[in-house]
Design brief:
2 helices; 0% strand; 82% helix
Amino acid sequence: MLLVDDLLLAPVWGLAWIFRKIRDAAEEEVAAEADTITAELSELYMRLETGRITEAEFEAREQVLLDRLEVIREATHGAGEDDGRGTRD
């Protein structure tokens, strides 16, 4: 009977594996985007310190980057939170 169960559930396990791989790829992409934004912020601070941009330009661009970073952090932290039943949302 276990062999029959394994054969019947094989497509389900295959789909679950595919969805896990898709989730992992999406998480890696989000992490890479966060790293890119952090690097852009560092570059922005350097440009301000060297006088290549004004304080107004810095503040405007900084706010855009920080908003994007906050959206990414909320998405990643919200997706990984436990719902109290031992499962993810």
